[in-house]
Design brief:
This protein has 470 residues and is an alpha/beta fold. The chain is 28% helix and 21% strand. Strand 14 and strand 15 form a beta hairpin. Keywords: Signal. This is Sulfatase N-terminal domain-containing protein.
Length: 470
């Protein structure tokens, strides 16, 4: 496929949006095709790739990122149904790198980053195809600071990840760097971009600030910035949680807790917005703004005391939905399109490889967003680490635009990050997302077999089981 043909596919795919009904073939089906390759003639036209990944950023945070929205959403594509396939940091990041569900890439929790097969990663494909690759900020939880991230030519990897005066693996040398981490990441990314003035290779930059993760420490200049008031949503003041799983019944988060958390999160994101604007301006100065494919999203959402829960890791919309913007003017993605398709972090790697003209030689679960592919539902999954009491049970969920069915299991991950347990179903939930978008009424609570038949639960359970084994 020529570059012009590929751009045309991109324009059609994005403009089709939610109206698309024809499913494109899974890139996983192409696993037996030729290995990753790109011809020298195509190299000059291939886009640069910039992935900006925030940490624990839920939706409804656009107040803090107006410059990001103005560039990447208002002039790019705003995906209204952006999701993560696992609402936890390391599994989500591994899905971005590999285009695979967590049960396939193997990073099921935050303790086992070395379970990721680095051969499956987008950075491996891009570097092999002649891209200059860079990583700046957070990589994978529990990654050892002295270990260099595979398939990156340049990196500034922070471990442990903190807001101020962190320790960094700086191209193989571990040392302290003073300053606010978002600013440190911004400056090093800008230096990486600057090299494009003399290095003709296309580049890939993965930029991952700590914001807006706890403890949500803002940059000093934003420490006291006034934040618009927020008075919660129906899930925050839910009067009766008896139809929810035990850990939600025992949750104690309040509206006041959520308001304080939200203020802290928004203030940290103000510095991310400054960094994104700096990237925009640098690309414009380099003449590379048009042919850079940019993604902006969170690695998971976060609940603001919805159902009393003040974290992530749960199968509720504030936890699994994220801001999701894409821009690529040279590929036809620069006109402020709104796309209502169900998309997820597993779609990023396939999209990048599609744009770069690279055919993967390993299976992927996601699909290129440059096609008209439109899924009718998404598998979202999460694993409990260890056997300690409290916290969410392992779960998997069938999520469509109209309904959500969730099963909780007697499963946990062991010290090696591998699943263990009986697998028995502990609890189930079903929500009508059209009439109950805040997930207040679990229709399976005290439901009869006849009720379950009318809700279509047997078919949903079968579909969920098929997804989990795919």
């Amino acid at each position: 496929m020529s570059r012009n043909d590929r751009n045309l596919v991109g324009r059609r795919g994005f403009l089709a949006g939610a109206a698309a009904v024809a499913a494109a073939p899974s890139l996983g089906a192409l696993a037996a095709a030729a290995p990753a390759a790109a011809t020298p003639a195509a190299s000059a036209a291939r886009p640069n790739i910039l992935v900006i990944l925030t940490d624990d950023q839920p939706k409804q945070t656009e107040w803090a990122t107006p410059k990001t929205v103005a560039w990447l959403a208002d002039q790019g594509v705003r995906f209204t149904a952006g999701h993560v396939a696992t609402p936890l940091c390391a599994p989500s990041r591994s899905s971005i790198f590999s285009g695979r569900q967590a049960h396939n890439h193997g990073v099921l929790d935050n303790s086992s980053p070395y379970n990721l097969d680095q051969h499956t990663t987008v950075q491996r494909y891009l570097k092999q195809a002649g891209y200059r690759t860079g990583l700046f900020g957070k990589y994978l939880n529990a990654w050892h600071a002295a270990d260099n991230p595979p398939h990156f030519e340049e990196w500034l990897l922070e471990s442990p990840v903190v807001y101020n005066d962190g320790t960094w693996n700086d191209n193989g040398t571990v040392h302290a760097i003073p300053g606010y981490s978002t600013t440190v990441i911004k400056n090093r990314t800008l230096a990486f971009l600057d090299k494009a003035a003399t290095d003709p290779r296309p580049w890939f930059a993965f930029v991952a600030p700590k914001a807006s993760h706890e403890p949500n420490t803002p940059e000093a200049k934003y420490a006291d910035t006034p934040v618009p008031a927020w008075n919660g949503r129906p899930g925050v003041t839910e009067p009766d949680r008896s139809d929810k799983p035990d850990f939600i019944q025992n949750a104690t988060g309040t509206l006041a807790d959520a308001q304080a958390l939200r203020r802290r999160q928004l203030r940290t994101l103000l510095s991310v917005d400054d960094a994104v604007q700096a990237f925009h301006d640098k690309l414009a100065a380099l003449g590379q703004l048009e042919n850079t494919l940019v993604f902006y999203l969170g690695d998971n959402g976060y609940t603001w005391a919805d159902h009393g829960w003040l974290k992530k890791s749960v199968p509720y919309r504030p936890s699994i939905e994220v801001p999701f913007y894409v821009s690529w003017p040279a590929g036809g993605l620069g006109s402020g399109t709104v796309d209502n398709r169900i998309v997820a972090n597993i779609d990023i790697a396939p999209t990048i490889l599609d744009a770069a003209g690279i055919t993967p030689d390993t299976p992927q679960d996601g699909h290129s967003l440059l096609t008209g592919y439109s899924r009718d539902h998404l598998l979202v999954e999460w694993w409990k680490h260890g056997t300690a009491a409290g916290g969410p049970h392992t779960w998997s969920s069938y999520v469509s635009g109209t309904e959500q069915y969730t099963e909780y299991y007697q499963i946990h991950t062991d010290a090696a990050g591998k699943p263990a347990g009986t697998g028995s179903v502990l609890f189930r939930e079903y929500y009508d997302l059209v009439n109950d978008p805040h997930q207040l009424t679990n229709k399976l609570y005290q439901a009869t077999p006849q009720d379950e038949q009318q809700l279509g639960i047997p078919a949903l359970a079968a579909a969920l089981a098929a997804d989990r084994s795919a």
